[in-house]
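Ops channel
N.P.: pipeline sanity check, posting one input/output pair.
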């Protein structure tokens, strides 16, 4: 698998080197020391009072040589409390660990949908991670369509910044647990997705829904969960850029940062 060098964006500085390519890529390859910052959660709401969210990743891992648990994402409040974060255990490739309100929930996934166990050491195996959280409904999580989490824990994330590929607060006084592996697509919804919707997305990785528009008897559009997509970050890029556009149309662009001495790369790896 041919992988092209990305750019280096040194912490607290701007992009200093961009390598242009002519063909399209599909994923970012995180190799530690790199992450993406998006926005404060409250700033991304779509004009509703709903604090119900679904965060999704198409992601694969790699073998790691570290004692730090690589993070998929983190939401840390201004008092440095971890409201919600998701990790893998570096020594257990079938693990997925959730920190909710600073408490750890450790899960081993020995079977997915009746098939083999979760394997974060297989870089060619992409999984759809879906985590549903709310300040009123509780907390649920899925690897593909297999649940790994279902609790009554209420999560308030309004003043937290969405950090991808690291455990970090907004000020970066906490900055650790960097992700190793590939991220193909990230989605954020201002609603709880149904089990049937998640199952459809697993079976059809290139689609969000079986139905794109519903109309009433007069032909008027009816509000659907598709209208609750508030962030969509895909890496179908032809050239490296520090800004990852939000394709949901809401303007919540992400920014890639890389510590000095580390790099992040474009890859043609894709969800099969």
């Amino acid at each position: 698998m041919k992988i092209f060098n990305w750019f280096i964006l040194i912490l607290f500085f701007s992009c200093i080197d961009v390598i242009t390519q002519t063909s399209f890529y599909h994923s970012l390859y995180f190799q530690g020391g790199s992450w993406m910052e998006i926005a404060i959660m409250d700033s991304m709401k779509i004009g509703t009072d709903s604090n119900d969210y679904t965060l999704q990743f198409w992601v694969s891992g790699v073998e790691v040589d570290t004692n730090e648990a690589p993070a998929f994402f983190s939401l840390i409040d201004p008092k440095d409390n971890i409201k919600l974060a998701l990790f893998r255990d570096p020594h257990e490739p079938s693990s997925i660990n959730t920190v909710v309100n600073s408490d750890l929930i450790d899960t081993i996934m020995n079977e997915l949908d009746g098939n083999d166990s979760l394997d974060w050491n297989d870089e060619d195996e992409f999984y759809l991670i879906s985590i549903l959280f709310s300040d009123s409904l509780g907390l649920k999580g899925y690897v593909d369509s297999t649940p790994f989490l279902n609790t009554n824990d209420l999560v308030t994330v309004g003043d937290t910044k969405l950090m991808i590929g690291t455990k970090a607060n907004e000020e970066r006084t906490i900055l650790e647990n960097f992700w190793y592996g590939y991220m193909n697509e990230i989605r954020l919804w201002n609603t709880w997705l149904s089990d049937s919707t998640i199952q459809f997305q697993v079976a059809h990785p290139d689609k969000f829904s079986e139905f794109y528009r519903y109309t009433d008897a007069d032909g008027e559009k009816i509000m659907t969960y598709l209208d609750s997509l508030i962030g969509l970050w895909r890496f179908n890029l032809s050239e490296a850029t520090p800004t990852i556009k939000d394709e949901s149309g809401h303007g919540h662009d992400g920014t890639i940062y890389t510590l000095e001495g580390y790099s992040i790369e474009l890859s043609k790896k894709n969800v099969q």
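N.P.: looks fine end to end. The CA atoms of residues 28 and 218 lie 44 Å apart.
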